[in-house]
Amino acid sequence: MLPKGPVDVAPVKGPERIETGRLVLRRPAPADAEAIFSRYSSDPEVTRFLGWPIHRSLEQTHAFLRFSEAEWQRWPAGPYLIEEKQAGALLGGTGLAFETPFRAATGYVLARDAWGAGYASEALRAMVALAAELRVRRLYALCHPDHPASQRVLERCEFAREGVLRRYVEFPNLQPGEPVDVLCYARVF
Q1: What are the tens digits of pLDDT across the range 90-134?
Q2: What are phi and psi of 17, to 5 degrees?
Q3: Domain total for the chain?
Q4: Which domain holds residue 27?
Q5: How far apart are the C-alpha atoms of 137 and 154, rounded to whole Å?
Q6: Residue 94 falls within a domain, yes or no?
Q7: Is 25 a domain residue?
Q8: Which residues have CB under 8 Å from 62's CB, separation 6+?
Q9: What are the start-end ranges of the E strands in the chain?
Q10: Is residue 6 one of the residues assigned to a domain?
């Protein structure tokens, strides 16, 4: 017989380190600021289609790391850094951005020299597996309509394109202060 009221279930915490075939995804630490800044957060080409502004100073990267820590404290998981397993080189970032215990957004960013090697798909598959483990029911990602490479990654990882959200989000590195259309992709569990 099923209970009629809410079931008290202890929250599940995500691991601080995840290994895939070629990658290590790990919780960011304050000591990562300079590497994040130099590898990808200050690169205009890398940040072009992202929903956060390019980092013009190391202090902005430190602010991201404080935000990251707060997310990890509040939710079952948060941002992850993506590293190449063999060399330990920082490649980029990914993670889960929780809105509720059952709904989260995900995405990815990679340094230019990591583009085209399948790292985004590998990292995204790890986030899908983590979301399922953490009992997320809806995992979604937003994608700029002019970013076909990212659309292909989402489709390869079995995200369904749900539609276009009109004048929904700002891309501060393209059109600051102006909400634009965005594609919405999702997986439900």
Answers
A1: 999 999 999 999 999 999 999 999 999 999 999 999 999 999 999
A2: -140, 130
A3: 1
A4: 17-139
A5: 17
A6: yes
A7: yes
A8: 30, 33
A9: 17-19, 23-26, 79-84, 90-100, 103-110, 138-143, 160-170, 179-188
A10: no
CATH number for the domain that contains residue 69:
3.40.630.30
Three-class secondary structure of residue 4 per DSSP: coil
CB 47 within 8 A of CB 40: yes
Residue 6: its pLDDT value, please? 52
Q: Cα separation of 133 and 119, whole Å?
A: 21
Say whether 129 sits in a helix, a strand or coil.
helix
Sign of the CA dihedral with 37 first, then 131, 26, and 90 last: negative
> Which positions ≥6 away from 50 have C-beta within 8 Å?
107, 109, 171, 173
Q: Which of 115, 119, 117, 173 is nearest to 144 (CA)?
A: 173
Report if residue 168 sits inside a domain: no
Dihedral pair phi/psi, residue 154, rounded to 5°: -60, -45
Asked if pLDDT for residue 149 goes beyond 70, the answer is yes
